[in-house]
Each structure stands twice: as structure tokens, then as C-alpha cells.
């Protein structure tokens, strides 16, 4: 069983190390592929649910003034959110609504 597992892992590594069409990557391509996206660039792409004002939250699709105010009130009473998904605890905020804005929000 161990031999089979090792063979599968080895084959997976072999396939993942191959490049498309047998071409080898240049130094710049390898460096770009290994460089993760910097955290600073993701900060500006999302609205931090723990820091956003009610006005900023209303810019999100499906979030009106009432729900934005509830989010701010929830933060005030219970402290900052640990994960963006916790927003569904707020009254009037559903899982469906969260999925619609999941790419637009974050927490620090």
C-alpha cells in the first residue's frame, strides 16, 4: 500500500514539474510564479468589515443603510469580527447575501 501511495505522489510531482509544451521557464517567469501576491494589494481590493463606516458598507451590493447600521452596532456591542463569514450573524444578513459580497469584504 505504501509503495502505491509513493508511486502516486511521485507521478503527481512529475506531472506538476513539467511545463506546457516542454518549454522551460526563464528566471523571470519562475520568479513571477513563485512570488505571492502582496498583502498590500489585497487590502485596497476589499472593505474591512471591522473598520468600515456605515456609509462605506452601503456601497456593497445588497447592503442598505439599515443593515450597514446593524453591522456597525454589532461590532460595537460584540467586538471585531474574527472572520468575514461571521457577518451572517447580523440580523437581516443571510448566507446568500454574504456569498454575493464575499470577494469584496475582509477582516483584519
Write up what this structure looks like.
- With 108 residues, the protein is mostly helical.
- The chain has a domain at 45-106: AF1531-like domain (DNA polymerase, domain 1), CATH 1.10.150.280.
- 50% of the residues lie in helices and 4% in strands.
- A two-stranded parallel sheet has the order 1-2.
- The chain is globular, with a radius of gyration of 22 Å.
List keywords for this structure.
108 residues, mainly alpha, DNA polymerase, domain 1, two-stranded parallel ribbon, globular
Structural topology:
Blueprint: H1 2-17, H2 27-34, H3 39-43, E1 47-48, H4 54-57, H5 65-78, H6 95-101, E2 105-106
Parallel strand pairs: 1-2
Query: Structural class of the secondary elements?
Result: mainly alpha
CATH fold category name of the domain at 45-106 = DNA polymerase, domain 1
Largest sheet: spatial strand order: 1-2
- What kind of sheet is the major sheet? 2 strands, parallel
Number of strands: 2
Q: Tell me the distance between the termini.
A: 44 Å
Low-confidence stretches: 22-43
Using the alpha-carbon principal axes, give the shape. Answer: globular
CATH architecture classification of the domain at 45-106: Orthogonal Bundle
Could you name the CATH class of the domain at 45-106?
Answer: Mainly Alpha
**Helix and strand pattern:** HHHEHHHE
DSSP strand content = under 5%
Helical element count?
Answer: 6
CATH superfamily of the domain at 45-106: AF1531-like domain
Mean pLDDT: 76
Helix content percent band: 40-55%
Gyration radius over CA: 22 Å
Amino acid at each position: 500500500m505504501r509503495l502505491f501511495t509513493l508511486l502516486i505522489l511521485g507521478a503527481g510531482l512529475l506531472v506538476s514539474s513539467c511545463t506546457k509544451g516542454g518549454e522551460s521557464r526563464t528566471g523571470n517567469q519562475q520568479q513571477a510564479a513563485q512570488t505571492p501576491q502582496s498583502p498590500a494589494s489585497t487590502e485596497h481590493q476589499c472593505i474591512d468589515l471591522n473598520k468600515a463606516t456605515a456609509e462605506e458598507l452601503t456601497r456593497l451590493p445588497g447592503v442598505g443603510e439599515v443593515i450597514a447600521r446593524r453591522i456597525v452596532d454589532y461590532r460595537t456591542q460584540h467586538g471585531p469580527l474574527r472572520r468575514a463569514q461571521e457577518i451572517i450573524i447580523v440580523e437581516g444578513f443571510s448566507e446568500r447575501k454574504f456569498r454575493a459580497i464575499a470577494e469584496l469584504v475582509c477582516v483584519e
